[in-house]
Specification:
Blueprint: H1 14-25, E1 32-36, H2 42-52, E2 56-59, H3 76-85, E3 90-93, E4 97-100, H4 106-110, E5 112-113, H5 115-121, E6 126-127, H6 130-134, E7 138-142, H7 149-161, E8 163-168, E9 171-176, E10 180-185, H8 194-199, E11 202-206, H9 212-227, H10 229-253, H11 261-273, H12 280-295, H13 303-313, H14 330-346, H15 355-367
Parallel strand pairs: 1-10, 1-11, 4-7, 7-10
Antiparallel strand pairs: 2-3, 5-6, 8-9
Length: 368
């Protein structure tokens, strides 16, 4: 296996790296779309993240990498094996990196049921697809804007559900499909339809670094890696190992990270004041904020976590009309959250109000 450029050695692009790490902590966030010009480390970062991630525990001899500690997510085969044997052994496996080609078809992605075998021999046989290979790993789609829309829909549905179910002629097969979804694209080659764009939880626009010292560091590190890949990786392994441990710790506590009614009001007020359509953004911000807190070894989210999550969840969801702003900065988001809190605290007439009334009042003021 060729050496992979270390994740921690990537110069700059902090927002892109943060989006990837949050999805590594909690793949249920729903993936990240990275948009940018050529040569901005998009694919390098995706491959580096997969190499960085800690090993995962899987059911031994399972074709789908089922998690032995989560029986409710097991594939059809593991459920049947468990019924026969009473328990299933496990092994440790490196996090897989699966690259989906642009020419992929639906059958190649979801897998196929052998109907001839089922009819002639009465046996159910499922040929795994890309989703099976990517389970509990990283699924990378380069030039996602050139992929067939129907295939993109299937991938995003699976990422949201965490399960792939294939049904043909009354025969069905199910297996888990929980993966870190990373899509990259060059906007110069065309964009995704708005409906598909919204389905990506987070979105990052990356640009070439302009500061001369940073560009020098990029050249030096790439030349060092090309000259001695193994030696370069060995030099960065302490930092890689440290970050890998942080991700592992965050994964263990992310479901325990708490949030308050005040936090929910902040998120709802923020998305309402920016006139974001639908409710997907609110849920994404909450999940990403919890992952951010877990990554920083905290068990409760704060306003800064919400602003950092919103910075990644809103860019591709903001309306882009002639009188609408196309993006918001982290500073602007934090200011908006502070204003929402001030509006909720002050009230209009000093009388006690329900949280719903407080939110309506805050949003009304922001809209005006």
């Amino acid at each position: 296996m060729p050496a992979i450029f270390p994740f921690t050695a990537i110069v700059g692009q902090e927002r892109m790296k943060r989006a990837l790490l949050l999805n590594a902590v909690n793949p249920r966030i729903g993936g990240v779309l990275i948009r940018g010009e050529r040569g901005t480390a998009k694919s390098t970062a995706a491959r580096a993240l997969a190499a960085l991630l800690p090993e995962v525990k899987i059911v031994e001899d399972c074709r789908f990498g089922c998690d032995p500690d989560r029986p409710t997510t097991w594939c059809t085969e593991c459920r049947e094996r468990n019924g026969e044997n009473g328990s299933l052994p496990f092994v440790m496996r490196r996090t897989s990196f699966v690259n989906l080609p642009v020419s992929a078809t639906e059958d190649r992605v979801v897998g196929t049921l052998d109907m001839e075998r089922a009819i002639q021999k009465g046996e159910r046989y499922f040929e795994p697809g890309v989703l099976a290979a990517a389970n509990r790993g990283l699924l990378y789609i380069d030039e996602v804007n050139l992929l067939d829309d129907h295939v993109v829909d299937i991938l995003l549905d699976s990422a949201a559900m965490g399960m792939n179910i294939v049904e043909r002629e009354g025969i069905s097969f199910a297996h888990p499909a929980r993966f870190i979804l990373v899509g990259t694209m060059n906007p110069e080659e065309g964009d995704l339809r708005p409906q598909l764009l919204d389905r990506f939880a987070l979105c990052v626009d990356v640009h070439g670094i302009t500061e001369a010292p940073d560009r020098v560091s990029i050249m030096e590190r790439n030349l060092s890696f090309e000259d001695d890949p193994e030696g370069f990786r060995a030099k960065w392994m302490p930092r890689e190992h440290e970050l890998s441990q942080e991700i592992e710790r965050a994964r263990e506590v992310v479901e325990s990270v708490s949030y308050s009614s005040r936090d929910l009001l902040s998120i709802a007020g923020l998305t309402s004041s920016l006139q974001v359509d639908g409710h997907r953004a609110d849920l994404v911000i909450l999940k990403a904020a919890r992952a951010q807190a877990a990554l920083e070894d905290r068990l409760a989210i704060n306003d800064h976590d919400i602003a950092l999550a919103a910075e990644l969840a809103l860019p591709h969801r903001l309306r882009r009309g002639p009188f609408q702003q196309a993006e918001v900065s982290l500073y602007n988001l934090e200011e908006r959250i502070e204003q929402i809190h001030a509006d909720l605290q002050n009230g209009e007439e000093g009388e006690p109000r329900t949280p719903e009334q407080e939110l309506a009042s805050a949003v009304k003021k922001k809209m005006n």
